[in-house]
Design a protein that fits this description.
The chain has about 450 residues and is α+β, with helices and mostly antiparallel strands. It folds into two domains: about 10-215 and about 330-440, Aminopeptidase, CATH 3.40.630.10; about 215-325, Alpha-Beta Plaits. The chain has 14 helices and 16 strands. Strands 3, 4, 5, 6, 7, 8, 14, 15 and 16 form a nine-stranded mixed β-sheet that branches. Strands 9, 10, 11, 12 and 13 form a five-stranded antiparallel β-sheet that branches. α3 crosses α12 (about 390-410) and α8 runs antiparallel to α9. The chain binds zinc ion. The site of zinc ion (ZN) has 5 residues, from loops.
Length: about 450
């Protein structure tokens, strides 16, 4: 056996079985799951995964925002090599988004434990609270608090779209833990996730080496006009909030055609009083803008704000803007990125470097430790949909890559001695796991901000 057990492989059937069992909690038509953050379904999903952690004799720690980390060996308290993701879903969730990263992590730990292979540093698998953000904004809230980007007290006061308070809901499901947050940084963090886009499948590539995550801007716009009779109010005398909201939707789409690489979405909109024969007095809508370059994202935000102002002026309505989330683009640790690529090559898998279009917990962990991600293909690029699907061979391939990366990071001495693991061009000293610089200055960058216009 080589120093880092490079021939070790995970049990793909066991992984598939756990994915199927977890998907049975909060089941929805079409084979997906609905486990919105901190609902009873989320609690039941958490309880199942925690029971699996306990079956493996992991030490299960829960922090003040409900993040859960299972560590092996249980009596090791030095910083672990951490993997994981989330098990909350959107209302129309598939069975792989997030769940794969958590259950593959569990499978990797079980494989390591069963094999009896020695490790220098502890290994751990975790799941983070409210990654999806469809019930509480911002998304990736649990990992943001874990990494010190948002104070715990502020996070606990977050109000859900259904009016519930996050802290109350966390207590209700029994997941207020004693582990402090922000947490002590792990030694490294690696997350396996489905791509949620069409690139890998269309190119016939099995492993996406994720180099970073694009910047994300979420805002809510509240347009206030005047309700009036739909039949008697002349068109020129209206202050129609619904009309302005619709024009904003069009402006967002136009902006994406003007700024290369920009994606923009209005995913939520409601009108008040929401009646067939009444001009809308109020419209509330959300805008999601993303771009890999932060300056370009800021330009897009500014241009949209200008257009919103013009539209509001022309219709005689007011618009109030509230920032729901603003995350800068993230670049993953080059050592981890290279390692993902190396291991995938060694497994004979087709590999491609790519940026992530979606936000992930790994981008929060990147603030405090060397972090990276592995993508596996999503059939048809479909996600946030019960039809979300990744072939069993790809699930296994991704989990096997994750296993080798965890073994490598948890065994730096053995890995450095294992020539086979090192690229010919790399110095024989093994990976340099220096901490990301400047984490402190970025700490507040992700915190939600209120803004008056
Ligand atoms: Zn996810």
């Amino acid at each position: 056996m080589s120093a880092v057990a490079t021939e070790l492989r995970i049990n793909g059937d066991r992984l598939a079985r756990r994915l199927a069992d977890l998907a049975e909690i909060g089941p929805i038509e079409g084979g997906g799951s609905a486990r919105l953050a901190l609902t009873d379904a989320d609690r039941d999903g958490r309880n199942l995964v925690v029971s699996w952690m306990e079956d493996l004799d992991l030490r299960v720690d829960v922090d003040g925002i409900g993040n859960v980390v299972g560590t092996w060996p249980a009596d090791r308290f030095d910083p672990p090599v951490l993997t994981g993701s989330h098990i909350d879903t959107v209302a129309t969730g598939g069975r792989f988004d997030g769940n794969l990263g958590v259950l593959a992590g569990l499978e990797v730990l079980e494989t390591i434990i069963e094999s009896g292979v020695q490790i220098e540093h502890p290994v751990a698998v975790g799941f983070f609270t409210n990654e999806e953000g469809s019930r509480f904004a911002p998304d990736m809230l649990g990992s943001l608090v874990f990494a010190g980007g948002l104070p715990l007290e502020e996070a606990l006061d977050t109000v859900a779209i259904d009016g519930a308070i996050l802290g109350d809901e966390l207590a209700h499901i029994g997941y207020v833990g004693g582990m402090p947050c922000p947490a002590r940084p792990p030694r490294a963090f690696v997350e396996l996730h489905i791509e949620q886009g069409p690139v890998l499948e269309s190119e016939g590539v099995t492993i996406g080496v994720v180099t970073g995550v694009q910047g994300i801007s979420w805002q809510e716009l509240t347009v206030t006009g005047q309700s009036n009779h739909a039949g008697t109010t002349p068109m020129g005398m209206r202050h129609d909030a619904g009309h302005v909201a619709a024009a904003i939707v069009v402006a967002v789409r136009r902006l994406t055609s003007e700024i290369p690489g920009l994606v923009g979405t209005v995913g939520r909109m409601d009108l008040h009083p929401d009646l067939v024969n009444v001009v809308a007095a109020r419209a509330r809508l959300t805008v999601d803008l993303r771009h890999p370059d932060d300056d370009t994202l800021a330009t897009a935000e500014a241009q949209l704000a200008n257009r919103v102002e013009e539209l509001a002026h022309a219709e005689g309505v007011s618009v109030v803007r509230r920032v729901l989330a603003r995350f800068e683009p993230v670049t993953f640790d080059p050592t981890v990125v290279d390692l993902v690529e190396d291991v995938a090559h060694r497994h004979g898998l087709a590999v491609r470097r790519m940026a992530s279009g979606a936000g992930h917990d790994a981008q929060m962990l990147a603030r405090v430790c060397p972090a990276g991600m592995i993508f596996v293909p999503s059939v048809g690029g479909i996600s946030h949909n019960p039809a979300e699907y990744t072939a069993p061979a790809d699930l296994t391939a991704g989990a096997d890559v994750l296993l080798q990366i965890l073994l490598h990071l948890a065994n730096p001495t053995a890995a450095a001695a294992d020539d086979a693991f090192l690229r010919k061009s790399r110095p024989a000293s093994g990976p340099d796991l220096r901490r990301n610089g400047g984490a402190g200055s970025e700490r507040d960058a992700g915190a939600p901000k209120e803004s008056g216009s």
